[in-house]
């Protein structure tokens, strides 16, 4: 029995992303981080207001510099949007409704249970007060 020998070529990734030029509304890194919000401006000193350092920074670099994952993800997403030509603005974090999508059924059931419990207690209180009639 003969087995076919597969040859694998080395996978090489190139970072062909173009560094955009600063615009009038976003002349430097500080302005960019301030405009996108969500406390990204706390990390201004890490990039030293260096445009090329900011645009060449990868997620792994930001992790080494101590930027938390949520902020890292948000900044990387905005870097790509800016590359595509979108002007930066603050996007507020969403607020969970009914305990989140996965917990909505349980949350609503507990709310209904609490409402029924309160109605039952009120009914019992009313019946005990008007029992003499």
From TrEMBL:
<dbReference type="InterPro" id="IPR019083">
    <property type="entry name" value="SAM_Ribosomal_mS41"/>
</dbReference>
<feature type="domain" description="Small ribosomal subunit protein mS41 SAM">
    <location>
        <begin position="29"/>
        <end position="85"/>
    </location>
</feature>
<comment type="similarity">
    <text>Belongs to the mitochondrion-specific ribosomal protein mS41 family.</text>
</comment>
<protein>
    <recommendedName>
        <fullName>Small ribosomal subunit protein mS41</fullName>
    </recommendedName>
</protein>
<dbReference type="InterPro" id="IPR039603">
    <property type="entry name" value="Ribosomal_mS41"/>
</dbReference>
<dbReference type="Pfam" id="PF09597">
    <property type="entry name" value="SAM_Ribosomal_mS41"/>
</dbReference>
<keyword id="KW-0496">Mitochondrion</keyword>
<dbReference type="GO" id="GO:0005739">
    <property type="term" value="C:mitochondrion"/>
</dbReference>
